[in-house]
Structure formats: structure tokens, C-alpha cells
Amino acid sequence: MRKQYLAGVLALVVAGCAAATTAGIGDPGSATAPASAPAREPAEVPALSTLPAAAGGLPRVRLVATGGTISNRRGGRLTAEELLAAVPGLDTIATVQAEQFANTASSAITLEQWLALARRIETLLREDAGLSGIVVTSGTDTLEELAYFLHLTVRDRRPVVVTGSMRNPSQVGYEGPANLLAAIRVAATPAAAGRGALVVLNDEINGARDVTKTDALRLQTFASRGFGALGVVDSDRVVFRRNAEGRHTATSEFDLDRIETLPRVDVLLVYQGATGDLLKAAIDLGARGLVLATAGAGALSGTQADGLAYARAKGVPVVTTTRAGTGRIAPPPRPANADATAAPSTPSPRLAAGDLAAVKARVLLMLALTRTTDPRELQRILDEY
User: Fold this and answer.
1) Residue 69 is a catalytic residue
2) Per-residue confidence (pLDDT) for residue 38, from 0 to 100
3) Which residue has the higher pLDDT, 7 or 72?
4) What's the topology of domain 263-384?
């Protein structure tokens, strides 16, 4: 009965999508220019889009599966092909090819696999100019970090959509097929181009930079606190209401061809009576950068200032964020008599990540350190992304 009920619900969703297809607008090819094509301004991206019924056929989407709860049924994990088979009616939405990159929990994926995945996605897009977009399935525990890494490293305007599920295929209310359907619809729609990597669950579209997992168990867990979703996936169309700001994807300076490994960056927390010894220990153990989730808008505690001084003496950058969840950390103020147009003569002992979450500041700092260790350049990168 549960399978019949789910199939009925999904059939209604797909039927609505199929009806929207016949009224589609535009040519999917218009949103699938290769990375070398001139970038359009975000304002030119349409806010509303139905799935187009193009003369050349349905939009083409590639599914790259990495595992996670969406695949983790009792008795064995679902493959990429089995995930697609659970979504009826896809042949009226898009032509989808699937490949299995990995099949494990998101927290078990290594940084080396991150690099390999981003390279694989870039290769797929580079070798197929007619591909509308990419969908990546992932576990939800560290999904936001993976999405942001792809946001910074896949240098193409076409959408990379990351999805997953909170319930596994053996549980009542498994939402994997619905989330996968929504993600494929977003990847297939021209309006998604130029918005960076996207996270799609529960029919909401969030930008990779701002989205976070807000609840360990609830289905409605992914949200962009303080900013809101970029758009939604409705039964008749995909709707966008805002753009992803900052540099990303096609405008990113991070070239995967020049990155062999990612440097170690550790995340530490400010709490009452915290000791600077942990900062020192991380540096002594090989950290090339640190992210410090501060109290409030930048407060330290205990002897952490001593740890900052140690980091500065060792030439290890420390990036500050807030542990509060929302809010911006500003760079330290300049002296009153400083030239506003000149670079500071002495870099601050700590850099500021603005409103970027600590785990994402770590991702950005790892990539930034593959290009520079200059504090001024690091702060520029933090400001621009």
C-alpha cells in the first residue's frame, strides 16, 4: 500500500510537470553554453521557466550519485540507476543519464574525492555542450559543504544541483524520489543557469553559499537563514525570486588543473574560558589555516588571543566567523588616520569571513591557500566570494 500511495503521489507531480512541458518556453540550448561562452548578466536570466519542449528533444541532464541516506536502504544501497527507476515519468521531463561516483555517507567522502568529483563534473560539461545541467545526490550531513565546494570550483554557468533525502528508502515517507524529481527539473530549466551550485530538497531551491542544515531529523531542514531561498519548484514550473551574489562557478578563480591537494584547515570554536592551546596545537600538527567561530560579532574568550598571536608569528591565517548562525563579521577597523585607499601596512592577525558559515569559510580558505598566503589577498577572496 505504501508503494502504491507513493507512486500515486509522484504520478500526480509528474503529470503536472508534463502538462507544463507542453506550454514550455525557450530552447534548452540557450542555457547550455559551454564555459568559454560569454557570461550573461544575472538580470538577463528569466525569473520563471517551464520545462521546454525544444525542437531538438527533451533537456538532457546527467545524474552523478555519491550515496547518502537517499540510497541507503536496508539490505544494500541503491545505485544511480535504481534511484532513477524510482521516479516514474522522467521520460516526459528530461533525458537523464546516470553514473555512480561513490556510494557512501557524505561525511565519509574525502577531500581527494571532492576534487575528483568536481573534475568529473567539469569534464562532463566541457565534453557535452548540449547538456542542460548536472544533478548530484549526496548524504545530507555535509551536503552544504560539498555544494559550496562545487559552487567555487565548477567553472561553468550551467546548473549543478545537489539533492538528497532525510529518510532512507526503507522508511515510511521516503522523500528521495520527489527530491530527485525536483532537482532534475531545476537542472533542466534555463532559468537555473548562472546561479551557481544549487541545493534542492522539499521543492525549495537554496544557493550553495548560504544554505545550511538546520535540523538533524526534520525533512524541512535545509534553509538559508537570514536570506531565504532562491526559488521554489512548483507543480507547473520552476520559479526563481533572487540571484546568488558573489563570485562563483564561471567567474571563479580556482582552477582545478592547478590544484593537486587541499591544505589542512581546522575549525575551532569560541566558548567560555577557551584556551589558546588548541589553536597552537592545530598549527603544530600541520594546519595551514584556521577558522575560528567566534562568540557574537567577533569576541574571543580565555587565552585565545595568545593562540592568535602564535598563529600570526607562524604565518598561519586565522579567519573569523560567528557561531551565532547569522550575522556578519567585519574586518578589524582601520586606524583613524589611515589612508582609506591604501592597503594596511600591517595585516590584521585575523581575517573576516563576513556572513559565511564556519564550515564554508574553511572550504573557501582551503581553496584560497592554493593560490596565496598573503593576508591582503586572502581577505580579498573572502570579500569577493
Assistant:
1) yes
2) 41
3) 72
4) Rossmann fold (3.40.50)
